[in-house]
Amino acid sequence: xxxxxxxxxxxxxxxxxxxxxxxxxxxxxxxxxxxxxxxxxxxxxxxxxxxxxxxxxxxxxxxxxxxxxxxxxxxxxxxxxxxxxxxxxxxxxxxxxxxxxxxxxxxxxxxxxxxxxxxxxxxxxxxxxxxxxxxxxxxxxxxxxxxxxxxxxxxxxxxxxxxxxx
Length: 166
Fold this sequence. Notes:
This protein has 166 residues and is of the alpha/beta class. The chain contains 5 helices and 5 strands; from the N terminus they run αββααβαββα. It has a 5-stranded mixed sheet. Helix 4 links the parallel strand 3 and strand 4. The protein is globular and about 45 Å long. The N terminus is likely disordered.
């Protein structure tokens, strides 16, 4: 029997889904690094072609810098790696929906695709609380995908904040 004619639903992920999972797992590992340094556990990875060119996790507490979000740090590293502020051919993988500041940075850097694990209905800038990528007059609109490692990433953030309340 040919798999394409099989009457059962496809249960094997496509190569693209496997690739996205691979990069999000690296972002998740960065989120664990954030947790281990008492930072909100958000991790980010930037992919150019099939290479990781930047990894980062939140460092707002350790750097005493409100802009030291995983996405912002990763974008800076990627721009230096590429040698240009335009990241047109790059993809960002981040374990939580970017806030408006980070969403704006992805748009301004011309990131091609942004993948995030779960929505942030309070402060998300790419669909949760607001949708900066949908601004009518914006000349750059990254493709947004969500849901890769959603449960694991959400549980990690929730557990972190529960531990902080104790």
